[in-house]
Write a structure and sequence with these properties.
Elements: E1 4-8, H1 15-23, E2 40-49, E3 65-67, E4 70-79, H2 94-101, E5 106-112, H3 129-157, H4 166-173, H5 181-190, H6 202-216, E6 219-224, H7 229-239, E7 249-251, H8 254-265, E8 269-270, E9 279-280, H9 286-302, H10 307-318, E10 322-326, E11 343-345, H11 351-358, H12 360-364, E12 366-371, E13 376-378, E14 388-394
Bound molecules: guanosine-5'-diphosphate and magnesium ion.
Magnesium ion binds at residues 15-16, 35-36.
Protein name: Redox-regulated ATPase YchF
Organism: Natronocalculus amylovorans
Domain OBG-type G: 3-272
Length: 396
């Protein structure tokens, strides 16, 4: 039931490196296309400031961990097979890629900001990363357009009687994108189009496909390989380019994250994933130290390696999810421990949604909730916010 974050991007941008750094699993890496044949699914974590210290408690997480007041809550990470231009027509790994994409709740587009790989992932110099961003968005849009066109075709050839509703047929055709007819109708009207697809120009269809894609496939960009000197200049230029204002960029170095985790595993450093610093332990060679100091400088100036931040930005900012702690307003304790759980809920979740998330019986018997910080009662329709600590009062 955990959220799934999909890593996408053309070949050789560092998807597998990023995936490995975030999950510390072993997936083959290499500077050539199609290293990743099957999408790999692994467990990664998002950080949430633990609520237990505010209640002078020590948490006992049922899943994930807690380090110095930072909860690491599990999410699923998918390393999606490399996409190349024309994938929507079945080029490269084509349709398999598209099928895998549908399972992700939110996407992180990994882009090689060093400019040292061309659009197909082959080594080059001075490649503009904007081309990769455009190509990925276009590729997704063309995929949506194809499905949209099929839906329109079906609508136009089918006998409807008096019940013709284009939004209904499109929602059916696009059901894999987790949309519905109300949303489709809203998007159509929002673009100033009528509900008569016969009046739509080819550009209108493209615009519609793009709008539906933007709504149903939230995506951020992880600017990877920021540890290279070329990347800084690209970062400056692209994040200041108004044409990309619609995207959120996170500077990242999968290499740095992996190096730090490896060093931590070897007992050479103490490093908490996502932090912008680390401590060196024990004896290391001056060469090792120089390498680590270089990484220290990098994470210091970018506020971390960006691997954790990218996942958290995707889940909490782009998708709007929130973390909710079940609590006890009168301080009563479960024998298994306190602050055991930290649940990730969709945006705009209410007390009632949370109750149903816990169990359908708890939802059915919901009386009200209690905000454990203020000790105030909250109604079933009350919208929760990130890091709320809520006790559910239910007859069941
Ligand atoms: N400098 C630098 N190189 C990286 C980084 N991440 C990945 N790479 C290199 O980019 C190449 C492709 O990486 P890989 O993870 O296989 O890319 P994928 O095809 O997108 O899965 C490999 O040579 C990696 O070592 C990074 O953060 N910095
Ligand atoms: Mg790969």
């Amino acid at each position: 039931m955990s959220y799934k974050i999909g890593l996408v991007g053309k070949p050789s941008v560092g998807k597998s490196s990023f995936f490995n750094a975030a999950t510390m699993n072993d997936v083959p890496e290499g500077a050539y296309p199609f290293t990743t044949i099957d999408p790999s699914v692994g467990e990664a974590y998002v950080r949430v400031e633990c609520a237990a210290p505010e209640f002078e408690e020590t948490c006992t997480p049922s899943v994930g961990t807690c380090k110095d007041g930072t909860r690491f809550v599990p999410v699923k990470l998918v390393d999606v097979a490399g996409l190349i231009p024309g994938a929507h027509e079945g080029k490269g790994l084509g349709n398999q890629f598209l099928t895998d994409l549908n399972e992700a709740d939110v996407l992180v587009n990994i882009v090689d900001f060093s400019g040292k790989t061309d659009i197909e992932g082959e080594p080059t110099e001075n490649h503009d990363p904007r081309e990769d961003i455009d190509f990925l968005e276009d590729e997704l849009d063309m995929w949506y357009l194809e499905i949209l066109n099929k839906g329109i075709e079906k609508f136009e050839t089918k006998y409807h009687g008096a019940e013709a509703e284009i939004e209904k047929d499109l929602a059916e055709q696009m059901s894999a994108f987790r949309t519905n007819k109300d949303e489709i109708k809203q998007i159509i009207l929002g673009l100033g189009l009528t509900l008569e697809p016969g009046t739509w120009e080819p550009e209108d269809r493209e615009e519609l496909a793009r709008s539906i894609r933007k709504r149903t496939k939230p995506m951020i960009v992880a600017a990877n390989k920021m540890d290279t000197p070329e990347a800084a200049a690209n970062w400056e230029e692209i994040t200041n380019d108004p044409a990309y204002d619609h995207l959120t960029f996170v500077p990242a170095s999968a290499h740095a994250e992996k190096a730090l985790k490896n060093a931590a595993e070897a007992g050479v450093i103490e490093y908490v994933a996502g932090e912008d610093t680390f401590d060196i332990r024990g004896d290391i060679s001056s060469e090792q130290e120089a390498g680590l100091e270089q990484i220290r400088e990098f994470i210091h100036s970018y506020g971390g390696t960006g691997v954790q931040t990218a996942l958290e930005t995707a889940l909490f900012d782009e998708l709007g999810c929130m973390a909710i702690f079940p609590g006890s307003a009168n301080g009563s304790k479960d024998e298994k421990g306190v602050f055991r759980d930290c649940f990730i809920l969709p945006k705009q979740s209410t007390t009632e949604d949370f109750a149903y998330h816990l169990h359908s019986d708890i939802g059915d018997g919901l009386l009200h909730g209690i905000d454990c910080r203020s000790k105030r009662q909250v109604g079933s329709g009350h919208e929760l916010t990130h890091r709320d600590v809520i006790e559910i009062i239910s007859t069941n």
